[in-house]
Amino acid sequence: MRIRTWTTAAALLAGVGLAGCAGEEQEPVTVGLITKQEENPYWVEMREVAQETADDLDAELLTATGESDTDAASQEAALDDMVEQGADGILLAPTDAEALDPAITRAREAGVLVIAVDTPTDPQDAVDATFATDNERAGQLIGQYAAAKAEELGLEPQIATLDLTPGVTTGEQRHAGFLAGFGIEEGDEAIVASVDTEGDRDNAAVVMTQVLADHPDVNVVYTVNEPAALGALAALEDADADMDEIVMVSVDGGCRTMREGVRPGLIDATASQYPQNMAREGVRAVVAAVRDGEAPSGYHDTGTELISDSPVDGVESRRVEFGVRTCWGS
């Protein structure tokens, strides 16, 4: 676990009488942000925007991150640590909601507002509020696209799904949404392989290599996120696969992948999501709860768009130009 703490200049000056609007001091607020890891630029972007928003609102930001998308132990320790440090509210992207439930409960019982970002908990009311992509809809969008694109190319679908890991709601919802959008159910004969990647590029490259060895006729590849897509692409390139005869779809909408993967058609379509929105609105919600007594509740959809430079009939999408302009935030 890596824990970083930044204190804004405004918070440092508060003790010597820095005045807020209308000559009054702002009530001090401490916000925590716990992400999954920093190998994926998605989480880096979320942290940076949370810091910018906290600075703008004269709030203090505590941050922590684990080593991977499955590192629940680090997140549990960070939750307890931030409660001890006096956090008023904590934004948490849970790696394993079930494993983290006791720590979340301890935080809420201590009077700390807990908001899930990116990854919903199950049940949803395990936290006070959720700011996240509608992951099932994101999966449906790329599933609809993949089905239509495969039909356009005259392919008999041989599908490989590169998933996250069991028990993580984002991965499960995207997978279920993809199948629904494609018009099939779990166990359909068109699905020749389903493998877990932990959302990691290197893991995805390894498992995709094995998938191709076992099923060289794979022609539709669903990836749970863009790091997994890039790993799958590396394996496909090593196998000299004909990408013109393979449909690859993903979820994220990262700026670099948008330019280097979606624009050249290596990734046919991606469902963008907006970590900037999650971070910005989550920090604002904690500050408003402390200063205005307006505590958030329920689920808040932070948006998604299907992005492709190879659109298909019957499936609404936006061009890569739009995706690059709005990557990570809208």
TrEMBL record:
GO terms for molecular function: carbohydrate binding. It is found in: Cell envelope. One of its GO terms (cellular component) is cell envelope. InterPro entries: Peripla_BP_I, SBP_2_dom. Its main location: other. The keyword Cytoplasm does not apply. It comes from the Bacteria. Keywords: Signal. SUPFAM superfamilies: Periplasmic binding protein-like I. Residues 1-22 form the signal peptide. Residues 31-293 form the Periplasmic binding protein domain. Belongs to the bacterial solute-binding protein 2 family. PANTHER family: D-ALLOSE-BINDING PERIPLASMIC PROTEIN-RELATED. This is Fructose ABC transporter, substrate-binding component FrcB.
